[in-house]
Amino acid sequence: MKIKKTILLGVTGSIASYKACEIIGLLKREGFDVKVLLTKEAAEFITKLTLQTLSRNKVFDNMFEAPEEWNPAHISLAESADLILVAPATANIIAKLAGGICDDMVTCTVLASGAPVLIAPAMNGRMYKNRITQENISRLKKAGYHFVGPEKGRLACGCEDIGHIADVREIVKEAKRLVK
Questions:
Q1: Residues ≥6 apart with Cβ < 8 Å to 62
Q2: Inter-axis angle of helices 48-55 and 19-29, to 10 degrees?
Q3: What is the distance, to the nearest Å, from the Cα of residue 151 to the centroid of all Cα atoms in its chain?
Q4: What CA–CA distance (Å, rounded) separates 121 from 73?
């Protein structure tokens, strides 16, 4: 019997959060078990119910929810992960990870895990090109984190610039490569 690989999908507060639905669908079709970690900012863009329905798993968003077992959720999730995919990844979450800040389910789980981490940035072009964001990305790459995208495209502000989330097929392709 083939053992399913587990991908934790961290969804952060970007207008591109809706792309998580397509990512989940593609990963599920590839046979992955997908568990979603949702920041409170992401919940302003997409609902837990949508993500839970598509993933067929509980969505984790509350660090302080009483665990069903003794092991705290972010630790047991971190231990179960074959890959952590953060898509979309905002400048905020990239900065938190680069600084080791653990104040939500996504950041705590990433820092508690030894699994590969794939980040798909999505943000305004000026934010992406900002020297601080670029330094944070460089720091994460040096620490072994992987990145896919962003691309040049139409952004929420209406302009064409770098910062558009990578094509979901490219994100899934890179996730599959890292899991194998």
A1: 105
A2: 10
A3: 17
A4: 25
Block residue for tokens 């990870």: 97
Domain ranges (residues) in the chain: 6-179
Helix locations, 57-159, DSSP H: 73-80, 91-99, 105-112, 125-129, 131-142
CA 147/CA 128 separation, integer angstroms: 13
25 near 56, Cβ under 8 Å?
no
Q: Please give the CATH topology (third level) of the domain spanning 6-179.
A: Rossmann fold (3.40.50)
Question: Which residue is associated with the tokens 């992987």?
Answer: 146
Whether pLDDT at 62 is above 80: yes
pTM more than 0.90: yes
Other C-beta atoms closer than 10 Å to the C-beta of 21 total: 17
Active-site position among 102, 108, 157, 159: 157
157 is catalytic: yes
